[in-house]
Amino acid sequence: MSESTAAETLAREALADDLAFERDRILQPEIDETRARAVLADVDPRLRVVMSFAFAAAVVALDRPAPLVVAAAIAVGAVLAAGLGARRLLRTLAALDGSMALVIATLPFTTPGRPLIALFGYGASAEGLARAVEIALKANAVALMALALLGSSELAEIGHALRRLGLPAKLAALLLMTVRYVEVLGREYRRLRTAMTVRGFRMRCSLHTWRSLGHLFGMLFARSFDRAARIGAAMRCRGFDGSFPSLAELAFTRSDAIFLGFAGGAFAALLLARLA
Amino acid sequence: MTSEAPIFRLTGVGFAYGPGRPVLDGVDFELRAGERVALTGANGSGKTTLFHLMMGLIRPRRGRIEAFGAPRATEADFFEVRARVGLLFQDSDDQLFSPTVIEDVAFGPLNFGRSPKEARAIAMETLSTLGLAELARRATHRLSGGQRRLVALATVLAMKPDALLLDEPSAGLDERNFARLIAILDRLPQARIVISHDADFLARATSRHCRLVDGRIA
Fold first, then answer.
1. CATH number of domain containing B109
2. I need a surface site. Which of A261, A274, B180, B191 has the fewest CB within 10 A?
């Protein structure tokens, strides 16, 4: 009896240790998440998915500067309200704008129109500049809104939401399983890669390198198949019959109503700006 | 009569992966209520295979599997067995597939027809009894190895099984998680079969010993 109590005390200590360790390890992202969660966590994820798509569609349809500026302002407001961490926000935007930089930089020179300046004999047109600004504004507004509405939730939550919005069960299952196992696969890859490194493998442009990488990825595929079979078996052991039951009980809440109010206001503002 | 029947009775069970020498070749075995059986054997001797046969994940080439007093042969037969027997897999990553701990623990109860509310309550209760309640909302892939094993055990226990099949439950656990697992297993009433290569663990967690040699239980 006393032995089992001692073991339990030990067990409790181990759990406390584990939790402290985990907290330290994921402190940074967790701060971001809790702040974002405070505002939007209670809003039905389906509503957030639908609204971010609706906003994107509306913004893409805009063709004049005034409503675009309004749209960008709304998006900025949403991001501020969502309280996402600044670092993550800037990193995402940098990735987006970095990939668009070439388009934005070359557009003024490739669009015919009234010349603005000339560079190395090539003229930049005012129309081209306007187009570039428009594209940058649209892309950033849509990205910011998506970040505000979807960035604060786990991808899995979005998966469940999409499923309830009518996405076929198989696609939703693919998304959820990918979210869950991409890291396991990554770990397996790193383990194999480390094992190769400790035996002196270095990336070169040689047949040996390509063959070894082929083996590595072949092995990853083979193991993934095996793992998929084991996961399937484990699921069947717990009565899995092909459908994914969900724990969430969804109901229209006050947060949803408030969110809908804000969304309605935002779309009204866009419409007014468009008509003005 | 049925209460007297053993949980499992295997008679002359044989199995082979593809053609060639069978892995299992005439296994006779019985598990009765309350028994704590250690199952040992060399690598590749068919220990895990035997578990998979008992859960109906694979079907025997020959022989007969009875569970809870009835012969089991079809998928429907085994669906019932799976509701009453919990299998803990060697690799907990195979078992925990849901995004969060609570969803994973509730998966079994949901499959067997519990409402979301009941399933959530069962899951929380199971986690609490194992001292894991704090982990409920955590992402399964962010758990440490020890936590993963214990949560996997919780997913099995949430189905309130009559028997447990534990496939190397102590493998890879550090000293303290090992002690924790022993303490948990000690409190559980279920009959169980434990596969392990750890003599110390088996001595503390089981009372009867079976060894698989040449496809039979010696």
1. 3.40.50.300
2. A261
